[in-house]
Amino acid sequence: MKAESRKTDRPFYGEYAVTRFNPKASARKGFTLVELLVVIGIIALLVSILLPALNNVRRQGNSVKCQSALKQIGLAFGLYAQDHKGKWPVARHDRDFNPARRWTDMIAKYMNSSSKGDFNNVTDLAEIRRKSVLWGCPEWTKSIEFIENAAATSAENVYTGYGMQYRLDFYVNGRVNEMPIITTGVAGTYMKNTDWGRRSSERALVADSMWDVVVAYDNPVTVATRIQPYDSVTFAADNFSIDARRHLKPQTRKRDALNLRGINMLFADLHVSPVSVREAHAAVVIKR
Questions:
Q1: Phi first, then psi: what are they for 100, rounded to 5°?
Q2: Rounded (5°) CA angle 239-72-286
Q3: What CA–CA distance (Å, rounded) separates 251 from 215?
Q4: What DSSP string describes 71-104?
Q5: Above 90 in pLDDT, residue 198?
Q6: Are the beta carbons of 93 and 190 closer than 8 angstroms?
Q7: Domains of the chain by residue range
Q8: Cystine design at 69: which of 20, 133, 253, 276 (Cβ 3.0–4.6 Å)?
């Protein structure tokens, strides 16, 4: 009996069948446009969820660095007092110096190990810009982005992102000539740290500010109060030169910033703490 012949459309060569090569069948199938769009949409969704969280972590980290810088500034105040019979710097001294002296250049030598000798005025600050934690707040834009060839006496170098308050309660009592600031119109004085020390844990010394000084008046803080960076601040009532939003989200409204702790502050007992605008104002205008 004859063996049943094999039924196949493949040709036989002896004992072996040959399979025809089909390039379309062997090619790997790629993503369709719809599949690509779905993947892109998922990635975009994940980024939108994770990015705010990452920004919050970054801000928190920078706030910690800022607080560390303020603590070092506090130590520098202590070292300055040891060399000056227990007295702390004045916020500004521009009556007898040209260019003016400011608290920042007065404590600079205690904060920069590579410095040689004293800092005689603000022009010397530009030399240590990249080496000193006087510009120690990463959220202060000018800590990183600044004009390299700016004049030494310009705001680029004079303002470090921190301001010293100078009013204490002498302003309230009409004893302005006893405040720690010396200008053409104010005699001022270099005060002992013991004078600052009354209610020191509640009294502001240095805080986040776009100026080198923290200017405040007795008027209660309201939405109408002019504060940085929401308003152009001047030396006038209803003005408070504090950087209210530095450690908050960029989109934070002024009304909300008044009560959110987005400001880092060094107190007169040299501890550092985050405060709100209202808390910062209370720490500046506090009575002795």
A1: -65, 155
A2: 35
A3: 25
A4: HHHHHHHHHHHHHTTTBPPPSEE-SS-SSPEEHH
A5: no
A6: no
A7: 33-285
A8: 133
Please state, in angstroms and as integers, the Cα–Cα distance from residue 144 to each residue in 109, 138, 183, following that order: 21, 8, 31
How far is residue 170 CA from its own chain's centroid? 30
Calculate the CA 33 to chain-centre distance.
45
Question: d(Cα 150, Cα 157) in Å, to the nearest integer?
Answer: 8
Closest by alpha carbon to 74, among 201, 183, 177?
Answer: 201
- pLDDT, tens digit, for every residue of 100-159? 889 998 999 888 765 555 677 777 777 787 778 889 999 998 887 788 788 877 888 889
CA-to-CA separations, 236 to 2, 7, 215, 217, 218, in angstroms, rounded: 117, 103, 9, 8, 11
Helix H or strand E encompassing 162: strand 162-165
**pTM for this model (two decimals):** 0.80
Q: List C-alpha distances in Å: 231 to 219, 227, 228, 234.
A: 17, 5, 6, 9
